[in-house]
Please model this.
Amino acid sequence: MPSRTLGRSSLLAAGLLSLASTVQAAAPTAEDALKLAPVQPGIEYDIPPAADAKNCKINPEKIGKVTAWVVRDPNGVILRQFSDSNGDNVVDTWSYYKNGLEVYRDGDLNFNGKADQYRWFHTGGARWGIDKNEDGKLDAWKQISPEEASEEVIAALRTKDATRFARLLLTADDVNKLGLSKELNDKLTARIAEAPKTFAKLAGEGKIDAKAEFADFGGLRPGSVPAGTRGSTKDLTVYEDVWAMVLAGEQPQQVQIGSMVNVDGSWKLIDGPALGGGNAALAGFFYDSAGAQPQPQPGQEQLAGNEPTEEMQKLIEAIQKVDDELASAAEDKKPALNTQRADLLEQLAGIAKEPAEREQWLQQMSDMISFAVQDGSYPDGIERLEKLEAKLAEEKASDDLRTHVEFRRMQAAWGKAIAEPKADYAKIQEAWLKQLEEFVDKHKTGDHVAEALLQLSMASEFNSDNEAAEKWYRRLVTDFAKSPNAAKAQGAIQRLTSTGKKIPLKGTALQGGEVDLAQYGGKVVLIHYWSSSSPTAKTDAETIADLFKKYGGAKFDVIGVNLDYSKDEVTKFLAENQNVRWKQLFEPGGFESRLANEMGIITLPMTILVDDKGDVVNTNLQITELEDEIKKLMESRVANAAPAK
Model:
């Protein structure tokens, strides 16, 4: 088995620590590169057979501003990428791919040859783990979705791993960030304190055995709890009544997960798990006025609390058996297994008691088919989705369900096209954007319409078509005011239309004191939106530091706006880069923070240049263009200065 550590010795042995020229270090072979494995277990990534590995190629490539050893198969599809993010000729990022898409990455952000961060991408998921002591074991989740958090709970129960469960719980610092009243803060703290005991009790009972498998996730849709609710000071995004379906031994069982809350991009738990539905220990917290069990209105039922019928249990058990076969099946066996899985999900939808439950199963079915098409294991899946679309249209199903299935079919077709060995990426992207336009023209409601509008807006920005971007952002704001992306779209409109105008920018600096752009009158100001995880963060800081040293003072200043998810990350970066001497604004939330949404920041780094009158001059300068633009503003400032009396 290949080593699961990324110490300097194993990397040097593979020739994959240095990115210096082959005069200084021998170039690695593709076969050596393919022997390296992710630090975290259970990653599904492409491992070519030994015969094919001999024909794979490894070459140094320039990926944007980053240099990397890139391993490609005989058809040119990328398998691995080992990158140098900080330009010191040492590999610090190890990326693993499946079907040409990055699914997992080990990162060495303190550049000592050992991984300290782990990230999952695309079909691999959305998790982001932190390993503080670099021992290969996760210490905390920086980012994890509700579905993945639920799956982690089941894995912790299966292995009786209390530490694995504990890192999913809200910490004391997390609770303080929520802005709850003292009464609710105390109640929540008490709930969390009981969670490890509840977990230990269920794990010790042995009802979830070592072969138990996560089968499904569900719950009421996530909702926003606005600031001011029961004395709170901040908006919250929460899930209530989350459950996971598992096969514990031979019996499908429902495990109640309880309430979750989003903290800086990571969904955290407040309770230990319990078997079955309607358990009083897992009463809802955020939607009820006293943190007690929410009571359904007359005539209503909570879908999450419904126990599966015997018929449903048999179908869920059959799905799990298919999943087990898929995990080890040869590629040519997967299409039939995926067909079988889709059939079972459709049967579950057919016996659902409630319309909402039926929609849930059909959505899961379309999600599963779409992802399987994109990873190449269900080539006929697009036709299956087309048939489902036609059936739902004939039944006059809800708009939400129909748009969901249609959007998943579109994504499947895009993913299948992009994975072709000789794919013309430019043409595929052009066709994809055209499809999105047709989709939003045809549909006026639905979460995926809002998602499509955001993609159109962002793509237009990347193509420098600000007029089109503004049009799509405005529709997103107008038609989907309650969408989580509406605030960001409104901010993007403000940014795109800000040239020649004044913009708001206020906050508390990390170094102390309040920052208000309006108080910088008489100075040319560079506003730099950035993140310490950006590959160019260090070099960008050095460039701006040179400009600050050269022009800073009475005529020029810089305001940094950091969009890291954790304050610890930015403070660590600033401690290691003492040349960053200008004020830095930071608020928790990363790309979803107030500072990011206020100007609709969608990519980093981003710079905004403001003249000495406080008016925006440019909203997206490249770092390399800064000095020329600053010089022009300085010269204009001098030329327009009133003559001394």
User: Anything to note?
Assistant: The chain has 20 helices and 21 strands.
